[in-house]
């Protein structure tokens, strides 16, 4: 069996919740894209990361059904685990830093695949949403406290891979931050926390807590 770590990324203030992430630290054991795709499907996490160069931070990201040039929670988790100043992804070089209990990455909205950002009037409406039909990637959100930048969100990938809802999605949070042009404190899923902040020249920081599960 190929060795891998399991992290929880974007955990809540008390260390719970977060989105699970599989990380294969030695990507050379599964060098081909077909092998990696098969392994990611077998693990069944929303994303799995293969590390191709731990010192330079070169990573490769897969969902159970497809390869991604960039994704938020895999980059935050890999940056925390490898403790590197940057990650190299097919989309571009992702800045990374540790700040106390939070790990941050810096990326660009144009790296994120299309998402539907759908605003609702209240957090209760977001809480009550059923899983929408397949085919459309929906990030449902509402203000909890607009002056404070606090948001309630849920993410529905719309893929046919058994993952109806993502517990925490950094890329969608990045898109929303880019659209709103302000720092956000997002409560997503059952209790995950994602922090974001716009940066100069079109960059956005996304941060959260990461814990090693096993």
UniProtKB/TrEMBL annotation:
Organism per entry: Actinospica acidiphila
Domain of life of the native organism: Bacteria
An example molecular function term from Gene Ontology annotations: catalytic activity
Name of the protein described by the UniProt record: PhzF family phenazine biosynthesis protein
Family matches, as InterPro entries: Phenazine_PhzF-like
């Amino acid at each position: 069996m190929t060795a891998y770590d399991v992290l929880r990324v974007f955990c809540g203030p008390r260390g719970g919740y977060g989105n699970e992430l599989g990380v294969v630290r030695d990507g050379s054991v599964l060098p081909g894209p077909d092998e990696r795709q098969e392994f990611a499907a077998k693990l069944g996490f929303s994303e799995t990361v293969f590390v191709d160069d731990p010192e330079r931070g070169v990573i490769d990201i897969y969902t159970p059904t497809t390869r991604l040039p960039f994704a938020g929670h895999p980059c935050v988790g890999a940056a925390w685990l490898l403790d590197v100043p940057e990650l190299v992804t097919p989309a571009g070089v992702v800045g990374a830093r540790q700040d106390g209990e939070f790990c941050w990455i810096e990326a660009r909205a144009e790296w994120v695949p299309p998402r539907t950002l759908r605003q609702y009037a209240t957090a209760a409406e977001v809480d009550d949403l059923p899983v929408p039909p397949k085919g459309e990637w929906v990030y449902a959100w509402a203000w909890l406290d607009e002056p404070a930048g606090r948001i309630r969100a849920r993410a529905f990938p719309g893929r046919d891979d058994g993952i109806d809802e993502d517990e925490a999605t950094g890329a969608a949070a990045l898109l929303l931050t880019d659209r709103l042009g302000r720092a956000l404190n997002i409560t997503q899923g059952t209790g995950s926390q994602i922090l974001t902040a716009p940066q100069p020249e079109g960059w956005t920081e996304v941060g959260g807590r990461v814990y090693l599960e096993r």
